[in-house]
Structure formats: structure tokens, C-alpha cells
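Sample 3 of the quickstart, ligand adenosine monophosphate:
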Amino acid sequence: MNPAVWVARHGRLRPNEPALAEGERVHATWAEFAARVAAAAGGFDLEPGNRVAIVMHNRPEYLEAMFAAWHAGLVVVPVNARLHRDEIAFILEDSGTSAVVTDPEHVEDIDASAIIVTGTQWDRLVAADPAPLMDRKPDDPAWLFYTSGTTGRPKGATLTNRNLLMMALSYYADIDSISPRDSVLHAAPLSHGSGLYGLPHIARGAVSVIGDDIALARRWPGMSLFAAPTMVKRFDADPGPGLKTIIYGGAPMYLADLEKALGLFGPRLAQIYGQGETPMTITALSKQDHADGDPARLQSVGTARTDVEVRVVDGEILVRGDVVMAGYWNQPEATAETLKDGWLHTGDLGSFDDHGYLTLHDRSKDLIISGGMNIYPREVEEALLHHAGVKAVAVIGKPDEEWGERVVAFVVPDGDAPAVEELDQICLDRIARYKRPKDYRFVDELPTNNYGKVVKRQLRDL
Ligand code: AMP
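Result:
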């Protein structure tokens, strides 16, 4: 199954309906999208299985390039456009990329022999004669998803056609049904979660909208979007009934933020927990769960998705199913460490309640062990966020001669720094005494990677 089939199919089925939009403007109908994809596919002039990287900010051409590459039987390597040029170079080299599709903003950052730039060059390519749609097998790689690299060098999770198909089907099973009258807003990078969840929408013939304003739901109703918790936090107005679903995930959403979002959007929220290695699919907290509003469940990441088995072994979350990656690109050792007997070892710690709701307790490497006691940074962070003077916080363990590790909180104050005694009290009111930070550091901001995730590794060096 080649995902490019979907575009060709909707090109025939609904030729005059919008397929791609930039803000309010239609960029291409389905017939135009299908024609542009088939034409550009021939322009790559590469062999099936070759890799094509995409390095650009969100724009309609991103989706054209992605589907054109699939149409030609190529493997897509979506690269986070905010990476440093050396990091981009690493990914191009590691993936053995043959051609790069990019935009004028990134041309200078790319060192490759074959570069195709949006604008005149791309427009010429998409106007050429159509190339035939290449046959692809379920186990053929389709998308190399480079991990965000909060630890060490990024690795290319090899996602096959089957993985992407399972991800799309389980979206319909567990998140939402999608109709051709719906839309998907790409406010988050297409190289990551937003691009992945764009696929179930394209498969159903919905409109893909590039833009960062949820008010676009008035122009493109039936709108869903994938948003990192930091984005959801910034939304401050409901655009009305055109907004169908906000899917959040990828990082913890603290209860106070979730309650605020629920107040604004009600049960149009759904949470997903996944990894690049099992794209967007381990568990989900459904819209119904959000409607029920049970606080314990709202702090969980929901229940196992339809297409996977999920187990917790020695505290670590393991996943098995057809959505789990084939392995890391050209990294047999890392693959063997992560995939054992078909089970993906996520490196995340968690526990199930009696009803099958999974609660995440940070990644294993973030766990703090102090005086022999396990302390999950998340619970200390949740406690501290109850203080009105705390805008953001990250808790880590630092080596300590007496305790092994001691709890240190990096606090971004909201205005003046709150008194340490008050912060201590907030913790004493909510969590065990031994979990409260021994040390508070007030900082202007927390170090984040290009996806907005806090990089705790950097805090450990401070
Ligand atoms: P990535 O592969 O870059 O998408 O990162 C995946 C990691 O993000 C997971 O292994 C989790 O540690 C974290 N993560 C994903 N979804 C959630 C969620 N809903 N809540 C908390 N952390 C999450």
C-alpha cells in the first residue's frame, strides 16, 4: 500500500473540492494536488527506495513533496526545519539522502548535490508530465522519523507503509471519524506529529490547511489539529463550532493547564501518547474521557489503542503491534536494544490502574532516586505549578554525596521570584516530604529543544 494512492483516488473522486489550503486561500483542488504530485514524482529521477529529505517550514508544497516522493516509491525524510545546519547535515548523511526539497529560507543551510527549491523550480516540476504510481510493499520504508534527540544523536525510526496505514486506521478507531467535509490545521511542524496525523485526513479526503490560527476553523469547519501542550496553553479563544478536535500530546500536559483548556473548549480535546518509534499510537485519552472529567483519568494518558498491546514490565512501558517501527535506520545495535521479541521498549515509565488507564511517570532516565526512594519529577512539578508565582518548572536530580541524588527545581517565576518557604509549603501540602526540592534555582527560561520539549540534560550541567 502506497499512501500516494489516497491522493490519486481523491483526485478522481472529488476533483474540484479543495485539497490544500494556505490560510483561507485554496492552494490546490484534489485534481490539482494529484496532478502536481504525479508530475513532481517524475522530476526526482530516482530509484524506488532512495531517500528524499524535506527541509522546509510548513507550506502546501511540503505535502506535495511528501506525496510526490511516495508516488515515485521513495522514502521521505522529514527534517525539523528549525535544526542547526550541522544537525541537518547529520540527518542527510545518516539517511543517505539523494535529494532535498527545501524552501528559499533553508537553501543556505543545506549541503547536498541535488536540491529542489520551492518557487520557480518546484512550479516547473509540478507542471511536468505525470509519472506512474509506483508499487510499494507493506514492509517497505516510507518515512524516516528522526527522533528529537533529547539524548544523544538523533536516530531514524524507520516507519513502513504498514506502520503509517495502521496509524491512520487506529485514528478512526480511537480518536475521531473523518469525512471529506472536514479539515486538518497544520499549526505544528509537518515533520513531526502534525504531519503524521495529517495522513488519516488525506486518506479520507479532508482539506489540509497550513496556518497557525485556530480561527481558521470558521473558514474550514470540521477542523482538527495536533498541538503540543505548550501550544494548547496559548489558545485563549474558542473559534466556535467549526473547531472539531484538538489532539494534544508529545509532552506532559499539567492538570491546571488541562482544566483551563477544558473550560474553553470542553470535550473537544483528545490526548495521545506515542513516540516516533510507534507513531502517535500507544494510548489515547478520548473525548469521552475528557467529558467525564474524572481528575485521576485526566492526569493519565488514557487507554491502549486498538491496534497495539501495551504492557508495563519493571516499570517500563512496552508496546507491540503493526504500528511499531521496523527499527532504527542503519543502527542494528540500537534496534536490538529497543525492539526485543517484537516489543518496543519505550524508555517511558508508567503504571496501569485497574481499569486500564495508563499513567506516565517520566522517562526512566529522568527518574530521581534519593535516599533509595523513587521520585518522579512530574509529581513535584505538578505540585509547584499550584503556586501562582510559578510560570514554568522543571525538576531534576543532581548527584548528592549523602542521598545519591537530591531534588533540584528550576523555576521560571511569573513576575517576582516566590519565597522558597512558600514553594516548600506547596510541596508539603501535596506530596511526601522527601520529594520536595532541596534546592530552588530561579531562571528566566527553561532550555527546550526544537520541538519545545524541555531538555533536562542541559539543566543537569547547570
Ligand atoms: P517523540 O518521539 O519525539 O515524539 O517523543 C516521544 C516521547 O514524548 C514519549 O516517549 C514520551 O516520553 C513523551 N510523550 C509523548 N506523548 C506524551 C503525553 N501524552 N504525555 C506525556 N509525555 C508524552
